[in-house]
Amino acid sequence: MAKRSAGWSAGAARELLRRRLAAQWIDPPGPTVQVSPQDGAARITAVAERMLALQAQDYGQAVWALGLRAPGSTRGDVEAALDAGSVVRSWPMRGTLHVSTPDDLRLMLSITAARTIRSILPRYRQLGLDDDVLARTRAIATTELGGGGRASRDEFFALLVAAGIEPGGQRGTHVIGRLAHEGLLCWGPTDDGGRQQLVLLDEWAPPGAGIVDTAWPLATDGTPQIGNDDPRRSEALGAFVRRYVAGRGPVTLKDFCWWSKVTVAEAKRGLDQARDRLTSEVLDGTEYWTADDEAPGGENDENDGNDDSTSTTSRPAPPFHALPGFDEFLLGYPDRSPALPPEFAERIVPGGNGVFLPMLVAHGKVVGTWRRRVASGAVSVTLDPFEPLSAAARAGFARALKRYADFLGLTLVLGEPRLEKGAPDA
Whole-model pTM above 0.70? Predict the structure, then answer.
């Protein structure tokens, strides 16, 4: 583990954002590392592995969050990864839907699920979801979805109704969430309409040979079967910390605790496990962590002479990006001020309603939002910049949005920005 104390220069915020864009495979984008460009589903899976988990309560936004990090991919590639079981969608932490690989989901749930379930127990009692009812829902899921079965949300609710369990009043939603936290269910393949369906996690995507093996670490009462003193828990915590740092660094330990909702004590335990694969540096008295291969001077810091099939740093990337709403570039950190000036924060989450709009990003800074409407084989996009865009910025965002339209397989119809022209470059 190397340690440096020479903080960033006067352009600290720009340097921080540059390195986070690279860590997140946005700029330069990825992946072509060890993945054939022709295998779109494998490239999408590589993105999920890189990011560990991407926020995905809005399915359409999550699909683009994966796609933008794998240039040349399509929505069909994302759905192929879901249909192959190499990427799934579930609630690994914070009671929030994320996309991840199945084994990464198991890794995160082994650490977070018991605590999450305990925090929701009062709500279960309010809804009448006692141990008996929950046991019946497990039996329904196992019986009806076993042997390759799958069900949409409404179809699963119908199964509950048939068994005398009323899903209304959020009961059905909490049942699905509880069974997902237990590692029984996840959202997997898509139907003909592109809607995800519930499947049995272990049947749909059997566990690999990772830290969390076939002995699922959570009992149905929410008690972890892997105790705090079990070496596997320390190993899992180390992997959790290291993977977050690799996909988002430079970050602080506080950033990880906020993102994962892991306790400070367990986060420190994980950091101790991961230290030999991380690099620390001190900026203004605060310690930041970066994966060794992403730190300045690391193996990915300069082009090593490999071609595009083996390196994510050998090709230039544009400075303008059209990111989805809820993207980890903003939501992966508690302090968003380096990327988003506080005076514009409400423009991203209008009215503080928790819905993050798609973002226009220039040189790592969020400079506006964008809205899209799909109809008749085209996607119509309207830009809403915080300040007027220069001609260069408008052209850059047009190229970024053309990538989005190509990803969807649609024609781009780009409307006039809501603000007038004539400002300096964004």
Answer: yes
